Amino acid sequence: MALGFYITGKGFTQEKYDTTLGQLEEAGAGAPDGRTSHVALETDGEIQVFDVWESQAAFEAFGATLLPILTAAGIELNEPMVARVHNEIKG
Q1: Contact 13, 46 (CB under 8 A)
Q2: DSSP notation for the chain
Q3: Domain residue ranges of the chain, discontinuous segments joined by +
Q4: In terms of pTM, does the model score above 0.85?
Q5: What pLDDT, on a 0 to 100 scale, did the predictor assign at position 90?
Q6: Quick one: pLDDT band at residue 28, thresholds 50, 70, 90?
Q7: How would you classify the pairing of strands 3-7 and 81-84?
Q8: Tell me, which fold does domain 3-84 have in CATH?
Q9: What digits encode the pLDDT tens for the residues 38-90?
């Protein structure tokens, strides 16, 4: 069952988001297994993320790489909102 994750936090600027993407690429996690969709949204200079993952386990496996990168950058994440995906329309 696919899950949607809406993630917000403090200090996640556009610059830090772009840097994080580069670090994930370097770590071999730029396109992680189990993630089917990724959208970065910007409001008032802060990035929010909406991802669709195949499972909670896939999301958590990615977190093992992502969280140390975010912590080192001083980004404080809120607890993600998680919901079962009922339908996804592409295009």
Answers
A1: yes
A2: --EEEEE-EES--HHHHHHHHHHHHHTT-SS-TTEEEEEEEEETTEEEEEEEES-HHHHHHHHHHHHHHHHHTT-EEPPPEEEE-------
A3: 3-84
A4: yes
A5: 86
A6: very high
A7: antiparallel
A8: Alpha-Beta Plaits (3.30.70)
A9: 999 999 999 999 999 999 999 999 999 999 999 999 999 999 999 999 999 98
